[in-house]
């Protein structure tokens, strides 16, 4: 294990330009929930203020609470520990860099089975607050995880042309099982972000392993489906000539093919779509991963946009841990919104994980969405059952 401390100054983004930085205010700006720093400030910079306000009105109707939410002040001191498992990979490397940019992170632990030392040495030279440490191989995994607040797992093999996410199952299921088992032993209270595909199955696997270890907290286990939202927002903004920063499209269901269901009828700001546009956008969002796999022609799957989306989800989680009462993200989680045990939907995240679901997102669906919701359920159910069956066959040591 190697540790490299970095200087406490930080000057990326627009907020700091031309200001002198002091040790007591290393970022050179007043840090509150309306400031956009690093391009990673989730709710105002990613989802738009209009969406935020609308969700607040749905969920936190008391004006006094609204004011508290709006005035939440981020701690400028970095104080959270994040572990990234699979840090030397196509997603892992840019994601490590983006997490290194967060002023909320004090320690960034990078783990992989190989090649992580160089990634850590490289990233540790960035003059942002977090200390970077590298951990290689199973023998160093426990030390990587001790005391960590958020564990992000992009470890595994990516899709190659012609492969479906389920083709990855046999390799990635075992990787997720072993890593989550180590999380249960070493940081059972951490938020766990699962990126490794097929997410529809790897999240139920993680849940079963945590149950077997006696430490399952469904509020803290998240399947990262943020990339579907990022893509939906981008494609809708392009199609409807909307300002990208204001567009928010909830995406529900799961994270593969037809299980990905963008709720275009719930687009904010509200937009109208022809039947052809709905079909075209829905199919493009569902197949966007394949678009990248084919364009990369054998060199992997989405890594850069995935890293961006995962960084957004990490930042949202850190803001929630920091006490921001205004954090909403779509995620694939244990859920009672439908008859399926796991389901992606917008959730409110707080200090203890998922605080609430937003059931209104599933009310008043268009006929197209209602049909698509029913159509996705058998596939999603089968993927969940496949994950549960895999995990139940495993013997974990407690
Ligand atoms: N959730 C999403 O939206 C989404 C999007 C794109 C890709 N993915 C998935 O993310 C995963 C990673 O994709 P990638 O492009 O970064 O792949 P990659 O092959 O470039 O990187 C994977 C990394 O995981 C490491 N690894 C393998 N086994 C490990 C283990 N047991 N412990 C720790 N590290 C291990 C590898 O050494 C490698 O560095 C794949 O499963 C891919 O399908 C998810």
UniProtKB/TrEMBL annotation:
Stored SUPFAM superfamilies? LDH C-terminal domain-like, NAD(P)-binding Rossmann-fold domains
The UniProt catalytic activity note for this protein reads: (S)-malate + NAD(+) = oxaloacetate + NADH + H(+)
The GO annotation for biological process reads:
tricarboxylic acid cycle
TM regions (residue ranges): none
Keywords attached to this Swiss-Prot or TrEMBL record, sorted alphabetically, are:
NAD, Oxidoreductase, Tricarboxylic acid cycle
The keyword RNA-binding appears for this protein: no
Residue span of the signal peptide, if any? none
Q: What terms describe the molecular function in GO for this protein?
A: L-malate dehydrogenase (NAD+) activity
* Gene Ontology terms: cellular component: mitochondrion
Q: Which residues form the Lactate/malate dehydrogenase C-terminal domain?
A: 226-390
E.C. code: 1.1.1.37
Which ranges carry the Lactate/malate dehydrogenase N-terminal domain? 81-223
Which PANTHER family does UniProt cross-reference here? MALATE AND LACTATE DEHYDROGENASE, MALATE DEHYDROGENASE, MITOCHONDRIAL
Annotated family: Belongs to the LDH/MDH superfamily. MDH type 1 family.
The protein's name: malate dehydrogenase
Species of origin: Pisum sativum (Garden pea)
**High-level lineage:** Eukaryota, Viridiplantae, Streptophyta, Embryophyta, Tracheophyta
